[in-house]
Design a protein that fits this description.
Number of helices: 2
Oligomer: single chain
Strand order of the largest sheet: 1-2
Radius of gyration: 16 Å
Strand content: 15-25%
Largest sheet: 2 strands, antiparallel
Structural class: alpha+beta
Order of helices and strands: HHEE
Length: 84
């Protein structure tokens, strides 16, 4: 449960600034392709250092379930900081 709470908090910290930016411009096909390639590159880097649980359904207080990605370090030999 603690890990689930940490992952949810991290997801919120990352998602809220993106939502606050407002409407986006329409991207050209070249920009879209570059953005997809950048995301795939970042995902590959993350997969080397973290175990990723995707689309984990997290229950909220009001009964709604929200999908979240949980990132856990592969290196368990030491403790890592986390957010609640």
């Amino acid at each position: 449960m603690r890990l689930c709470s940490s992952a949810f908090a991290l997801t919120c910290v990352l998602a809220i600034p993106a939502l606050a930016q407002g409407p986006r411009q329409q991207l050209t096909p070249e920009q879209t392709k570059a953005l997809i390639e950048k995301r795939e590159s970042i995902e590959k880097q993350l997969e080397h250092i973290a175990i990723i649980d995707r689309k984990v359904m997290v229950p909220m207080k009001d009964g709604v379930r929200m999908a979240a990605d949980i990132y856990r370090p592969k290196d368990t030999s030491r403790k890592y900081p986390h957010h609640l």
